[in-house]
């Protein structure tokens, strides 16, 4: 009976209005970049459908412009204007964006029906006075979703490559128009590789994008070998690290690409469930390739076909770089801050960044803020 009562309370909960009507509650005109990334990360962790994710972003925009408000109508609080008196949680819990997003998504999954649009699903959770406003915000919600998918920078030869609003850009010049790229691009041998929201890896070569592989969960990592070919590594959907196969040797061939040739396979180089995030690969002076990944919270590296632990307690994807003296520098983000591996993880900056960093041989580090700016860090 208690569970049924709670469901009834939640069905009757939400906001009485779209956006707080209390004039003392100031709602910013723009979203909070950290809030959209947090809501997005929670949705991904729960493996919600695209419709449920969009419903969350539509609701967040309508209720708070995706800001973690400490005020609202009556006792409404937070990004979704959830009410403690209606069973959504304590004020402290609701003001935790991760908690609030989890409650929204879990309830949205329960009440979703095939005939509901994302906006009507948002209203089924929020029970507002203005159900039409959620679907009316779809363009804004989709734009925020694309920003939430943006990853770190790839800086090669002084040129900054990023994904912005779903497209790959190089120093601001748009290299694609599909608006479906996510994460961080990778550049090697004059080729640009990027991942789509559906888990496809594509390469930009000779002015055209073509398919490389499918079923990829993390951003690709491309490295140029001394013979001019390019090797590409990625973490697949099953958690295995894979070298994206190129049986025809087409990557790096440019105009010599055989007609109709495409790369669509992968060669696992680790067991399933082994890694998360983006690999980092280095071509050493002897021509061999070492791949660094995060595995079970540890930094591990593969050389000569064997994996070995390099360091414990890594939170994000690693970035390895070969220094001019032949030594290897390894960097990562811990709690959003740039760290360098010495005998332990040494912090280099108090500024918070997103995704991954881009390290240069001279020790320069580039990173991206939640607002999308790429800056030098450390």
How would you characterize the overall build of this protein?
With 378 residues, this protein is α+β, with helices and mostly antiparallel strands. It is 22% helix and 30% strand. The chain has 8 helices and 23 strands. The chain has helices spanning 2-11, 33-45, 50-64, 91-94, 97-111, 118-126, 132-136, 138-148; strands at 154-156, 159-164, 167-170, 173-174, 181-188, 191-196, 201-205, 208-213, 221-224, 230-235, 241-243, 267-268, 276-283, 289-295, 298-303, 306-311, 319-322, 328-334, 337-341, 345-347, 354-359, 365-368, 374-377. The strands form 6 sheets. The protein has a 4-stranded antiparallel sheet with strand order 1-2-3-4, with no helix packed on it. Helix 3 (50-64) crosses helix 6 (118-126).
Quaternary structure: single chain
pLDDT < 50 stretches: 1-17, 247-264
Give the % helix. Answer: 10-25%
Please tell me how large the radius of gyration is: 23 Å
How would you write the strand order of the largest sheet? 1-2-3-4
Strand content: 25-35%
The profile of the biggest β sheet is: 4 strands, antiparallel
Structural class comes to alpha+beta
Number of helices: 8
Give the number of DSSP strands: 23
Q: What overall geometry do the principal axes of the alpha carbons give?
A: elongated
Roughly what is the average pLDDT, rounded to an integer?
88
* Cα distance spanning the termini: 57 Å
